[in-house]
Specification:
Helix content: over 70%
Order of helices and strands: HHHHEEHH
Strand order of the largest sheet: 1-2
Shape: elongated
Largest sheet: 2 strands, antiparallel
């Protein structure tokens, strides 16, 4: 199971990197099209906004695995080994609960938007559930990775 999660997080990270590369490329094309060809691309900003949601949520669990999120080192460094372990376990439990809650409510909202067929109406008409979908998916991955870290901490590893 850990191998599957690890590969899934790696795939999500690669997809997120591709989103960032696409945003950079599309904005460069937009600048060229607008200022040199006088024909701006109407979709660049909107697609960039949507892809930012995708890469932010889909890469969060990978960043968690790499210990890249902001931490409270100033507090943890003042604790002894037992206190550090207790702190990791407490924050692990909190992380699982918060991420699972965001996953659940994100899935509920995405499902509602899918059933309603609500579009986001800007320059492009995109179904709203497509814009919301990475939130529950990303939070599911964060929940899974947080749970794995919590189990490691409970077993004395980590």
């Amino acid at each position: 199971m850990r191998r599957f999660l690890s590969r899934t997080l790696d795939a999500a990270a690669v997809f997120s990197a591709a989103c960032i590369a696409f945003i950079a490329l599309s904005i460069s094309c937009e600048v060229i099209a607008r200022y040199f060809l006088h024909r701006p691309l109407r979709w660049t900003v909107e697609i960039s906004e949507y892809l930012q949601i995708y890469f932010s949520f889909l890469s969060a669990a990978w960043v968690l695995r790499k210990k890249g999120h902001v931490g409270l080192d100033i507090v943890v460094d003042r604790l002894g080994p037992g206190g550090r372990r207790a702190f990791r376990i407490a924050t692990g439990i909190l992380s699982v609960v918060v991420a699972a809650t965001l996953c659940l409510f994100g899935a509920i909202v995405a499902r509602e938007q899918f059933l309603l067929g609500t579009p986001v109406i800007k320059s492009l008409e995109v179904p709203k559930w497509i814009v919301i979908a990475p939130i529950p998916l990303g939070m599911f991955l964060v929940t899974a990775e947080s749970f794995v870290k919590l189990i490691d901490d409970l077993r004395g590893g980590g």
